[in-house]
Design a protein that fits this description.
Elements lengths: L6 E2 L10 H11 L11 H20 L7 E4 L2 H15 L4 E5 L4 H9 L6 E5 L9 H7 L4 E5 L13 H11 L2 E5 L11 H4 L3 E5 L10 E5 L14 H4 L7 H16 L1 H23 L3 E4 L9 E6 L9 H10 L2 E2 L5 E3 L2 E3 L2 H5 L4 H5 L1 E5 L6 H20 L2
Parallel strand pairs: 1-11, 3-4, 3-5, 5-6, 6-7
Antiparallel strand pairs: 2-8, 7-8, 9-10, 10-14, 12-13
The structure holds pyridoxal-5'-phosphate.
Length: about 400
């Protein structure tokens, strides 16, 4: 079936590259291709570009340039912290939550293979942990607390500042996966009290496969990615110069244009929520913190008790046919589609969690996109619920 319109509304998964970011990268893909660690003149030129990018990334989050380590993205940054802290320290207890991205949950669980123990805090019905939960979970053995800033499925923000204070008082390292918040809301490492944070360029109109790890000066950890002596021996591997330059440009633009992007995207999200509520009434439920959470993510469940076959997967397929590209948090394990671990962690019943989809908006979405989504979602659900 051919579609007339294409609406990409899956921006928490990844974003379109901003043209200005692409422009900034092209010279480093074309003529300035030298290895940034080579001592010759072209190498020195790309080295300068990398160091300028480092300064920019650092300044955006209130860090020092030496505290920025370039990585391949959020997953690598998260793995580096969890494994790197454990291998540098004697203590063995990690704390995280059950609503984290798998790029935190899996390395935390895998660390058990080499003797680490963990506490996985249960989030509340909005997907948030409390400071009391963290304080109560800390033991003499706790070495690292890792809690995300903004949740990638349900938009909820954790109270990082208060948790950071607890960690600092107890001399425990604090990491946050800030992949979904950097470039969208202000993130300052001192304000949040973090020792480590993870950044990914492709979530903020930058290129895929590049990210950064902030590691506070003096925080003890060992490099996870061993190899050459790049990044002051903290991350081996030839630097992705074009990607790093692109990430810095994307961060610069996201910071300069944060207010206008926020105003535009928040208005679209409010319109989408209102439109779905008006058309679907009690059949739509919004999951997560839609008041104070991230302004670009809307997670909805569609509840039709007489039609239990309505699930997110079917909805996604039907929306896809109409040219609407969104997602759900489900994982496909050996062919079986499972409900999102985040929604289940929030005590949302399995059937409701399975019926949910996530719209995540970008600066490129328009009012017409939203109208189209509302119309098509209503029509698809009507069709699915009137079938005999
Ligand atoms: C919260 C969160 N953490 C980590 C990641 C992984 O980042 P990357 O794709 O850069 O490895 C993602 C991306 O889906 C994410 O949303």
């Amino acid at each position: 079936m051919s579609t007339t319109r294409h609406v990409y509304i899956d921006n928490a998964a990844t974003t379109r590259l901003d043209e200005r970011v692409l422009e900034s990268m092209i010279p480093y893909l074309r003529e300035d291709y030298a290895n940034a660690n080579s001592p010759h003149r072209p190498g020195r030129k790309t080295h300068v570009a990398v160091e300028e990018a480092r300064e920019l990334v650092a300044s955006v989050i209130g860090a020092e340039p030496a505290e920025i380590i370039f990585t391949s993205g959020g997953t690598e940054s998260n793995n580096s912290v969890i494994n790197g802290v454990l291998s540098a320290r004697e203590k063995r207890h990690l704390i995280t939550s059950n609503a984290e991205h798998h790029a935190v949950l899996h390395p935390v669980k895998s660390a058990a293979n080499w003797g680490a123990v963990h506490t996985i805090l249960p989030v509340n019905t909005q997907g948030r942990v409390t400071t009391d939960q963290v304080a109560d979970a800390i033991t003499n053995e706790t070495v690292l607390v890792s809690l995300m800033h903004g949740n990638n499925e349900v938009a909820t923000l954790n109270p990082l500042k208060e948790i950071g204070e607890i960690c600092r008082n107890k001399n425990i390292l604090f990491h946050s996966d800030t992949v979904q918040t950097v470039g969208k809301i202000p993130v300052d490492v001192d304000d949040l009290g973090v020792d480590f944070l993870s950044i990914s360029a492709h979530k903020l109109y930058g290129p895929k496969g590049v990210g950064a790890l902030y590691a506070r000066s003096g925080a003890s950890w060992k490099p996870w990615m061993e190899g050459g002596s790049q990044e002051r021996k903290r991350r081996g591997g030839t630097l992705n110069v074009a990607g790093i330059v692109g990430m810095a440009k994307a961060l610069q633009l996201a910071t300069e244009e944060m207010q206008q992007n926020q105003a535009h995207i928040s208005a679209l999200k409010a319109r989408l929520m209102q439109g779905l509520k008006d058309r679907l009434g009690e059949h739509v439920q919004f999951n997560g913190d839609q008041q104070e959470g991230l302004y670009n993510i809307l997670n909805c469940s569609f509840i039709y008790p007489d039609h239990p076959a309505i699930d997110g997967e079917m909805l996604l397929l039907n929306l896809d046919i109409e040219g609407i590209y969104c997602s759900n948090g489900s994982a496909c394990t050996s062919g079986a589609i499972e409900a999102s671990h985040v929604l289940l962690a929030m005590d949302i019943p399995y059937a409701v969690a399975k019926s949910s989809i996530r719209f995540s908006l970008s600066k490129y979405n328009t009012v017409d996109d939203i109208t189209y989504i509302i119309d098509k979602t209503e029509a698809i659900l009507r069709r699915m619920t009137t079938r005999t």
